[in-house]
Design goal:
InterPro entries: aa-tRNA-synth_II (IPR006195), aa-tRNA-synth_II/BPL/LPL (IPR045864), Anticodon-bd (IPR004154), Anticodon-bd_dom_sf (IPR036621), His-tRNA-ligase (IPR015807), HisRS-like_core (IPR041715), HisRS/HisZ (IPR004516), HisRS_anticodon (IPR033656). One of its GO terms (molecular function) is catalytic activity, acting on a protein. This is Histidine--tRNA ligase. Helix 1 packs antiparallel against helix 5 and helix 5 runs parallel beside helix 10. The model has no long low-confidence stretch (mean pLDDT about 90). The chain contains 17 helices and 17 strands. By secondary structure, the protein is an alpha+beta fold. The chain folds into two domains: about 250 residues, Bira Bifunctional Protein, Domain 2 (BirA Bifunctional Protein, domain 2, 2-Layer Sandwich), CATH 3.30.930.10; about 100 residues, 3-Layer(aba) Sandwich (Rossmann fold). The strands form three sheets. It has an eight-stranded mixed sheet. Strands 13-12-14-15-16-17 form a six-stranded mixed sheet, with helices on both faces.
């Protein structure tokens, strides 16, 4: 029987995993500057956490969630996105308490799960990096989150980016717009896709997000939510734009953008790239917005929130297409060449001693001849070799060689094990013979 990974998943092999680690490291560095701290939540939650927050008419809930009943007959869902779990943890752990600094800023990294058709940059197990900030209604916080998203993408080398911006307004704005949208769509009901027909009276904004070409043609002439904003909602959106201009962040307003989750209100945004990875077309890399009211839905006090999510797989596809290499030099510091079985214990001692001093070190574990060991050292781009055989063992010494210059010197075991940096310095200063 041939075993294969499940459809829509990927094995992240060592060379690729180095790229993942660098992206995650860059993200942690940027987040630290903005004072966002990490949270780690379970990969599965109660079904209600997502069905209640994501919206019963969203594609995630109706088509894509991996949900099941466990042995205790509990309805469980593998997390399809990161925000709802963070909000649940925020409420359950009372992170809204008076002793907690406001706004409360956090970030997450990890796998998410959606049952959808696998394609480039879109898998059934995929990975997200995201941030959430709770406890402030300020438009300035919306813009900080946007600036953070832009900074993160720029930190990994992406500069050809476009920010698309919209607002979903407050409750009154949405209520007024909802009715206007229903009035516009009802005459076209027979022409709508089956999904859009079902959503027309439940959540007509979902029709704007339809991927069906016929639906898209119909909604092209739909009324704009920007015409239904209350004075308060308009003020919030105006201030967001003023702050973006103050930071010299250019943007385009897309009044048809609604995002794929029902919990958003006020500011929503997408950061897009025109990378060759997706044929040079503008493709979303990172998206998010404000979600006032989500904390209350999961049993917490009235608390505003704003955040974004970014797909790591999609980002890495773009980095590869743009030939942006984040992986640092992985050359080996020292390869220990042991000649004969008698040298093996001391070779292992040297390798471990060097690692404890902070150097990368390796040795042979396949009983290779000396020639084969030196080939292995060259293949690993070792900067130095340490060679010991019967004669070196008898003298308590080892031969240190700089692989680039050929300079070498004989040093004691104790020197190597106590301070290899000093030994290297002596070699660099010419205290040795050229070979």
């Amino acid at each position: 029987m041939k075993y294969q990974r499940p459809k829509g998943t990927a094995d992240i092999l060592p060379e690729e995993a180095q790229k993942w680690a660098m992206v995650e490291s860059k993200a942690r560095s940027v987040f630290a500057k903005y004072r966002y701290q990490e949270m780690r939540t379970p990969m599965f939650e109660s079904f209600d956490v997502f069905s209640r927050t994501s919206g019963e008419t969203s594609d995630i809930v109706t088509k894509e969630m991996y949900d099941f009943y466990d042995k205790g007959d509990r309805h469980i869902t593998l997390r399809p996105e990161g925000t709802a779990g963070i909000v649940r943890a925020y409420v359950e752990n009372k992170l809204y308490g008076p002793e907690i600094q406001k706004p409360f800023k956090t970030f997450y990294m990890g796998p998410m799960f959606r049952y959808e058709r696998p394609q480039s940059g879109r898998l059934r197990q995929f990975h997200q990096i995201g941030v959430e900030a709770f406890g402030s209604d300020s438009p300035a916080l919306d813009v900080e989150v946007i600036a953070l998203a832009m900074s993160l993408l720029q930190s990994v080398g992406l500069n050809s980016l476009k920010l698309s911006l919209n607002t979903l307004g407050d409750d009154e704005s949405r209520k007024n717009y909802r009715q206007a949208l229903i009035d516009f769509l009802e005459p076209h009901e027979a022409e709508l896709s089956q999904d859009s027909k079902e959503r027309l009276h439940k959540n007509p904004l979902r029709v704007l997000d339809s991927k069906d070409s016929q639906d898209q043609a119909i909604v092209a002439d739909a009324p704009s939510i920007l015409d239904y904003l209350t004075p308060a909602a308009q003020k919030h959106f105006d201030e967001v734009q003023d702050y973006l201009k103050a930071l010299n962040i250019s943007y385009e307003i897309d009044s048809n953008m609604v995002r794929g989750l029902d919990y958003y209100n006020h500011t929503i945004f997408e950061v897009m790239s025109d990378s060759k990875a997706f044929g040079g077309k503008w493709t979303t890399v990172c998206a998010g917005g404000r979600y006032n009211g989500l904390v209350e839905q999961l049993g917490g006090p009235e608390t505003s929130g704003v955040g974004f999510g970014l797909g790591i797989e999609r980002l890495l596809l773009i980095l590869d297409a743009e030939k942006i290499n984040l992986v640092e030099n992985q050359n080996l510091d020292v390869y220990v060449v042991g000649i004969g079985s008698q040298a093996s214990p001391k070779a292992l001692q040297l390798v471990e001693g060097l690692r404890k001093q902070g150097f990368s070190a390796d040795r042979d574990y396949l009983d290779k001849k000396p020639k084969g060991q030196f080939k292995a050292a060259n293949k690993a781009n070792a900067q130095y070799t340490l060679t010991l055989g019967e004669e070196e063992l008898a003298q308590g010494k080892v031969n240190l060689k700089d692989m680039s210059s050929g300079q070498q010197v004989s040093v004691s075991f104790e020197q190597v094990l106590s301070d290899f940096s000093q030994v290297k310095m002596a070699l660099l200063q010419g205290e040795g013979e050229k070979n």
